[in-house]
Amino acid sequence: MKQTKRYLDGIVYQIYPRSFADSNGDGIGDIPGIVSKLDYLKGLGVSIIWLSPVYPTPNADFGYDISDYCSINPEFGTLEDMDRLIAEAGRRSIKIIMDLVVNHTSDEHPWFKASKDKDSPYHDYYIYRKGKKPGVPPNNWTSNFGGPAWEYVPSLDEWYLHLFSKKQPDLNWHNPKVLEEVEAILRFWLDRGIYGFRCDVINQIYKESLDDGKWKPWLIGQEHYLMKEGNHEILRRLHEDVFSRYDCMTVGETYDVDYANARRFLDGELDMVFQFDTMGADKRLLPIFVRKHWKKRFKKTLVEWEKQVDWNAVYFENHDQKRSISRFVNPRYRDLGAKMLATLLLTLRGTPFIYQGEEIGMADFHRPFKKKEFKDPVNFWLYGLLRKLGFGEKRSLRYVNNMNRDHARLPMQWSNSPAAGFSSNQATWLPVNDDYKSYNVKIESEDPNSILSYYKKLIALRKSDPALVRGSFEAIDTSSDIFAYYRLNDGNIRFVLVNLSDRRVVLPRSISEMRGKVLLSNYEGAGFTFKKFLRPYESLIVELTA
Ligand code: NOJ
Q1: pTM above 0.85, yes or no
Q2: Which residues are catalytic?
Q3: Concatenated DSSP letters for 132-164?
Q4: Which domain holds residue 536?
Q5: Ligand 1 pocket by C-beta < 6 Å: which residues?
């Protein structure tokens, strides 16, 4: 049954609506803006769009704090606009998946407002507890966005749990009413023609106990809520009651997921999961510390996940991560490096997720953000914390910028018009990056050697070649600079060979003795037969010959 699912052959493109395309000149992207770009996405070869949240929200976490699950953020448009998006995408054979954020709601959601009355049935929709003693929260858990994970409500003399900001109270998944409500929301959208959901922090919705957590420098309490048995049970229920009854797909954002839990999620709970190991390849201890030597880990995590699960959600970017070329590529070789990463993204076994702008090689902001420019709430907390810990202003800013999510949320670069063609208004909600005149959709569409043109060729190749989609995956052992693997299907063998480094790398004998025809490379005219070395970031997709 699963084998007929279209996501297996599909290519997902993530849109962060606030930063994609602004149709009404308010400096904020919107749904009509997305509709106007559907032909572009069709031309790129995208088959599924994942929309980051488009629901009404007070924007404490830019949409990941939802105040109404069955309506549209007025900044983005109306329900009619959304229906039009679904229909117009459908006409182009593009499906839409939405973000399902049900670990928490906004504190401005009517359920939460009602929950402040102890006698209301909504009180039990959230996780309220008495403090350990006056002024002391019920346990020592800390929030993802800093400080204790509890907020005191004086009128109740109780605290509520929030694993993210205090404006994102956690739902109580022990209450069967919550499941019922969420199922109704899922049906509402699926019946409207939505093709599925990317499920936000879905491996932590079920709090097994509220005991104190073991002390850690970061996120105390996780052992009580990450991937608990109850979590799997809820997902099985959602699958049985709803997902299995629709032609739809689900992908879970599963922070810190391990192989065993991933396999369980993939067995009758979710269709795919986002693993976090690869994103940690260049991190040390805490996400603010960058590790220079990332290649070995990067490759190892990707190979291991290919071995451990049947089908991956392959991604190098999203709205929470810095741009991949700013992490993994020497800026001197920006185009070659972007194409190298694209080669991996589209030839590893799994469904590729392209994040808006990745296909034109968008980079992090050209300089560190200043404090007054921050938009992401996490930055304010982190900066304050670092200063409190005694770090100087400059160093604190540097650390914050090492994980600043605003980098990935800069406006999409469409052309070299002012505001990069994103908006008619130059006062965009986040600034446009400096490089928009050289890296934008228009200019790259006209250049056969651009990153965008390479993506198009790569996607077309992938679509025409079942080995690159469904073929099995077999990595070969090489030094950490080289990433090499076979994709095998029905006797067809493809060989993918990539230099992860900015240096020339000599190939081992086992590879330099091979023969084959290059199907695609990021170096013009590159050959393969008896190849002795790879140039910086050189990437090849090869059809092996005898
Ligand atoms: C993960 C989302 O990707 C992120 O943007 C958000 O801040 C948290 N979950 C909380 O919903």
Answers
A1: yes
A2: 200, 253
A3: SBTTB-SS--B-TTSSBSEEEETTTTEEEE-SS
A4: 472-545
A5: 61, 64, 101, 164, 200-201, 253, 319-320
